[in-house]
Amino acid sequence: MNNASMTGYYLVPVAQGCPTTIPAGTPFFQGLLDVSEMADNTETEVHTTIIPAATTPGDYHVVIVTDWETVIAEENESNNIICATITVTDPGASPPANDQCSGSIQLVPATTCVNVSGTLNNATASGTAQSPCDLFSGPALLDVWYSFVATATEHDVIQSANPSFDGVIALHSSCGGAELLCADDGGTGANESIHATGLTPGNTYYIRVYDYGTIAPTDPVFGICVTAPVVTGIEDNSVGEPALFPNPTDGFFTLRVNLTEMTDVTVSVFNASGQRIHETELGMQMGGIEKDMDLRMYSAGIYLVRTRLGDRAFSQRLILVDDLNNR
Fold it and tell me: What count of other Cβ atoms lies within 10 Å of the Cβ of residue 148?
């Protein structure tokens, strides 16, 4: 059995929350509510309406009131209110130039992170599947694309976020090609990074960026860069470059670095597959520092220790052995 009745709609900015009551006299625009009764006595509702052209773009709760005639005359009770969330965009606005993989913006790898400003403003979904590292149910997948030509066999892709941005980044072998790696380690406001190994110098790789949520972030702007880490040896290096000792190690080792100014220090460890297995944030540091680290819970093999000193990144190979005395 099908019924059709008029329904009132009211837009409320997401920041204001979904109302529990609506004051009498609230202006509504009307739509058609179709209610279809199913065989199991449940109902599905299809709401059809047109958002007024003068509506300011942004994120809104669509407050659906199933008895809008009553609301005109008296304050409405919460049991007549249904809230859904939508993003209103300007239909006349153009998507960003890198909205599709074919229009990707090229990044140039550098030894330090040279941030390029990007945005998801007016981005559309490219049709690429949700990344496997993104475990959220039903993200909007409004994505943009970047590319770079590999200059080495390993590169870092770093996406920096603003306080409302919850980024997901993925590395692809080509437009429409296999997804090689992805990162969704942090929450809202956190940076994301991919450490890619086994790359072919001269080949072009593609980076996809989208937000974790079901709607566009309040601030859709982010930064992105590609670095080619400086590979150093195990000797005591010059000021500002880290040293690891002993190397080889049974898993217990020390990182030493000298810093001539206050610098934000983060140490990450990757296995041979390029997976990050450990990360320590030392925060702002200055002077000579030594940090003991313990990887004895991991099996013998070759690991990569990446030390980020502000906008500089250094990678060093660390060899873990089962018995340091019998190597």
Answer: 23
Listed by start position, the domains of the chain span 2-88, 101-227, 230-326
Q: For residue 164, what are the contacts with CB-CB under 8 A and spacing of at least 6?
A: 188, 189, 217, 218, 219
- Within 8 A by CB and 6+ apart from 325, the residues are none
**What CATH class does 230-326 carry?**
mainly beta
Q: Which two tokens stand for residue 199?
A: 């790359």
**33: Cβ contacts below 8 Å, ≥ 6 apart:** 4, 5, 6, 7, 45, 46, 47, 64, 66
How far apart CA 167 and CA 208 sit, in angstroms, is 10
Report the predicted TM-score, pTM, of the whole model to 2 decimal places.
0.53
Spacing of C-alpha 48 from chain mean position: 32
Architecture of the CATH domain 101-227: Sandwich (2.60)
Beta bridge partners of 291: 255
Establish whether the linkage from the previous residue to 246 is cis, with ω within 30° of 0: yes
Whether the CA torsion 48, 53, 55, 59 is positive or negative: it is: positive
Q: What is the pLDDT of residues 52-101, one digit of tens each?
A: 655 666 677 666 665 544 433 334 444 456 666 666 666 667 889 999 99
Residue-by-residue DSSP string for 129-154 = PPPTT---SS---BEEEEEEE-SSS-
The Cα 284–Cα 246 span in angstroms is 25
Pairing of strands 276-294, 301-309: unpaired
Which pLDDT tens digit goes with each residue over 144-183?
999 998 888 889 898 888 888 888 999 999 999 999 999 8
CA-closest candidate to residue 120, choices 97, 86, 137, 138: 97
Burial of 124 (0-12, 13-18, 19+ CB in 10 A): middle
Distances (CA, A) of 38 to 2, 42, 44, 185, 282: 9, 5, 8, 41, 58
